[in-house]
Amino acid sequence: MNKTLSFLIGAVIGAAVGASVAILLAPSSGEALRGQIQDEIERIQNEMTQAADQRRAELEEQLATLRAPRRPADMEANL
């Protein structure tokens, strides 16, 4: 979980820094700039939502596996 969280934090920070640099270096009007910022925010929100949904699905799968009743044969194999 730490690797996933670290990756997500790095991706968000990288996207924010990249977007900031691109916006600051690209000449454009205030209205166009606000539109670019809003588009970038929406893109980052979508990426975060997708990553959270994927992680939630993985955790739910792990939880279902842990909650599943163990058969006696499975218990003997672990001894």
Walk me through the structure.
With 79 residues, the chain is an all-alpha fold. It has three helices and no strands. It is rod-shaped and about 70 Å long. The model has no long low-confidence stretch (mean pLDDT 83).
Short description:
This protein is mainly α. It is built from 3 helices and no strands.
Task: Record the SSE blueprint.
Blueprint: H1 2-25, H2 30-67, H3 72-78
Helix pairs in contact: 1-2
Order of helices and strands: HHH
Mean pLDDT reading: 83
Give me the count of strands.
0
- Structurally, the number of domains stands at 1
What is the beta-strand fraction? under 5%
Distance between the termini: 28 Å
Largest sheet: none
**Class of secondary structure makeup:** mainly alpha
Helix residue percentage: over 70%
How large is the radius of gyration?
Answer: 21 Å
**Number of distinct helices:** 3
* Coarse morphology: rod-shaped
Flag low-confidence runs. none
